[in-house]
Amino acid sequence: MFLRVSFEKMKFTQKQVVIVLGSVFAVFVVIVLFILNARGPAVGGEREGPKITLAVWGFDDESYFRSLIGEYGKYRKNVKVQYKEFDEDKYEANLIDALASGEGPDVFLIRSRDAYKEKNKISAVPATQLNLVSFQKYFPEVVSQDFVIDGEIYALPLYLDTLALFYNKDFFDQVGITSPPKTWQEFQEDVAKLAVVDREGEIFRAGAAIGGSERSVAHATDLLNLIMLQNGTNMTSQNLGAATFGATVKQKNPGLEAFNFYLQFANAASSYYTWNDNQPDSLDAFASEKVAMIFGYQRDVKAIKDRNSFLKFGVDLVPQPEGALKAVSYADYSGLSVSKQSREKAWAWDFVKYVATTPQVVQGYLDISSRPPAIRDPLIKDKLNDLRLGVFARQALTARGWTQIDSTDIRGIFSSAIQSVLSGQKDSAKALKTAEEQVTGLMREAGK
């Protein structure tokens, strides 16, 4: 009634009333948007905002994050970032406890294979801050496989490590091998030349650490999964309803073929016998010159040098199947994600995006951590021919993966499958089928 009386006294026309009301509403909308925007960063801008504190948790060395936090502080002077480092073995338990009590961080590190497992704890990045097209331009395909679920981005990587071939240069020279193997057929031939095994099967020098379980072979499951993917194995159904790596398709079972290929190197009856689960840890064996070739990640280079600083070894691309039309490698890395519990999600993603996609900022992190890059251009491009990181830069572009419901449980399942064959408890077909059923069980449990 008040508005009606006022308008009548002022003798406004109906058209004028509509204009006035529209103007009032427009001003109201602008005020609301301004208030809302005050809690989040201006997209693409560098303006000051409210004083914000972000808690970041991870298992990376605290020194790695200093440059990231320092650079972001220059970009957003209103945001304070605090990083808390945890022992990797205790990290997940601490994170779960903190989130359960509502005292978790705004940003936390996740492993590349754990995005699906952790997705209920993560707030996906809004498309207004980073859309999928831009994300895929920044990073290699494997990052989309690992960190994108149902079209939403759950984490951004700071680096990208891949499984590579490590070889003892002195051993290669002694038996006349001039270059590391490029194919698995060449790998078999080199193993036969390098291995020193007596008639009773005692291994004096292993040609390669392959064929054993996680008990003796570092990254045994990753290596087996790599060979499976190279052989065209579909690890899961498209809807993630079941594991399919033991399935027969068109009278072929690529997963079982890969499994048998892997196991032959620990089969005393094989002409390529070179390893068994009674051998020492493969990284220790390589450092002490008891094995000529192993498979490791870039992070393992330092671990080996710490054990034996005088060891002459090289690092090369993982072997590929004979006649393969495209190379396939295998990745393992970490990424930053934003907690669903964070009260500053927009600012948290602003931090993650800035430190993960700004090349000069990421480069500072890589220089300190000595890790391989994850950004396609210019970081991976600039390292393709680098003596130290070139192998890992090239493999980043060919890396592939598969969705794992729980990487820790899956590692245990595959390792047990290998052990059951080596011990004679099961044949390879039955062992792989059991592993497939166990992984399917994990997937169905997660889907409930």
Short structural description:
This protein has 448 residues and is an alpha+beta fold. The protein has helices spanning 2-10, 14-37, 62-75, 88-100, 115-118, 132-138, 141-147, 169-175, 184-194, 220-230, 254-263, 282-287, 298-307, 345-357, 359-369, 376-383, 390-396, 407-422, 428-447, and strands at residues 52-58, 79-85, 107-111, 148-149, 152-153, 156-157, 161-162, 164-168, 196-197, 203-205, 293-296, 313-316, 329-332, 334-338, 399-400.
Distance between the termini: 56 Å
Radius of gyration: 27 Å
* Order of the strands making up the biggest sheet: 2-1-3-14-6
Strand content of the residues, in percent?
5-15%
Q: CATH topology of the largest domain, which one? A: D-Maltodextrin-Binding Protein, domain 2
Number of helices: 19
Q: What would you give as the CATH superfamily of the largest domain?
A: Periplasmic binding protein-like II
Classification by helices and strands: alpha+beta
CATH class call of the largest domain: Alpha Beta
* DSSP strand tally: 15
Number of domains: 2
What is the multimeric organization of the chains shown? single chain
Low-confidence stretches: 1-10, 24-38
The largest pleated sheet is described as: 5 strands, mixed
